[in-house]
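Ligand-bound model needed. adenosine-5'-triphosphate.
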Amino acid sequence: MSKARVFLPGSTIGVMGGGQLGRMFAIAARRMGYRVHTFSPDEDTPTGQLADREVAARYDDAAAVRDFARRVDVLTFEFENIPVQTVEWAAQFCEVRPAASVLHVCQHRLREKEFLDQAGVPLPGFKAVASAGELAAAVAEIGLPAVLKTAAFGYDGKGQRKIAPGDNLVEAWAPFAGTGAVLEQFVHFEKEISVLVARGADGQTATYPVCENVHRNHILDVTIVPANISPAAEAKARALAAGIADKLGLVGLLAVEMFLLADGSILVNELAPRPHNSGHFSFDASVTSQFEQQLRAVCGLPLGRTASLSPAAMVNLLGDLWADGEPDWAAVLAMPEVKLHLYGKAEPRAGRKMGHLTAFGATAQLAAERALAARDALRGSLGK
Ligand SMILES: Nc1ncnc2c1ncn2[C@@H]1O[C@H](COP(=O)(O)OP(=O)(O)OP(=O)(O)O)[C@@H](O)[C@H]1O
Ligand SMILES: [Mg+2]
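Prediction:
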């Protein structure tokens, strides 16, 4: 494929995956006059509801993938766990950004860690594990506590288990049998942070201000921007992310999840070669949202400015919020500093990401208080 083709408004972008990341991408792309087609196994998806065309087919349906690719100019992703074979079928007919090689690295935890390690990126200690015996050997090497993670297809903490001293390793291994896994040193971090970085077709990179993230039950709960960290940590985190994007040869958007330690050092947790939940603040609070930036990068356009318009906080709205009926939307819509996002998912299952709120404030801390108060208000005045 040619090196740096540019796709101007009027072009058609294909999105693999049908979730909320594709939905917000579609909003950004259509705003700028692009056409959006989406491909996923489901119908009436969050992305499909906003796209010009929704294709519901399996990722291993070669004919459907090729037909989809024939009708788009450039293909990108909102979900990285697409078989590389699928991407190769598509690449016969359209430009694919980021390249299959980037997905190949990022969709497999062990490959990703080996890539980062070879690139000289600081990581928590890790070891590949393929059996209960190897788990015991890895524990002896890495020490406890540690976290055992599946090598592929993990998200929101699924496919993870913390291992503490005294745990039975044969039992701990049982649910992982038959899959590759990685044992990782448990990190006593001070903060979790993430950096979004875009890299254009010309190799130019742009990083966003660092996000500070709080997880609950392994799922992102709150993000504040700017992170309450030192200027040195901010600069180091952004440089680390830009360096990783360069090493990957990325054309597109990448989120780098990191642990910030009390001594100021930073360890990289994982990569996501697509928009990221922690970047949702940017939809409302940045000169260029992460979704517009993804569009700019994959279309070969100059990158947009990443500065924030205001300190901001984002809180996720999980399906649990619907436990006692429909949330009290009127309560948050009455709050002028709060933005409501809903993803168009019909079924509010517990733990499912249904939407988010973004709040502005004079400081990120004040924005976070506002966002949390708004989420409480959704539960109704009875404080359910
Ligand atoms: N080695 C570790 N030490 C301490 N905490 C960890 C470690 N690994 C993971 N965690 C905690 O679990 C969370 C989820 O882990 P990780 O990012 O690896 O999982 P994931 O399933 O890929 O999740 P997602 O795709 O939602 O980011 C982390 O954000 C962090 O809070
Ligand atoms: Mg993660």
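The pocket of adenosine-5'-triphosphate (ligand 1) is lined by residues 124, 147, 149, 154-158, 160, 184-187, 192, 215, 218, 257, 269-270 (CB under 6 Å).
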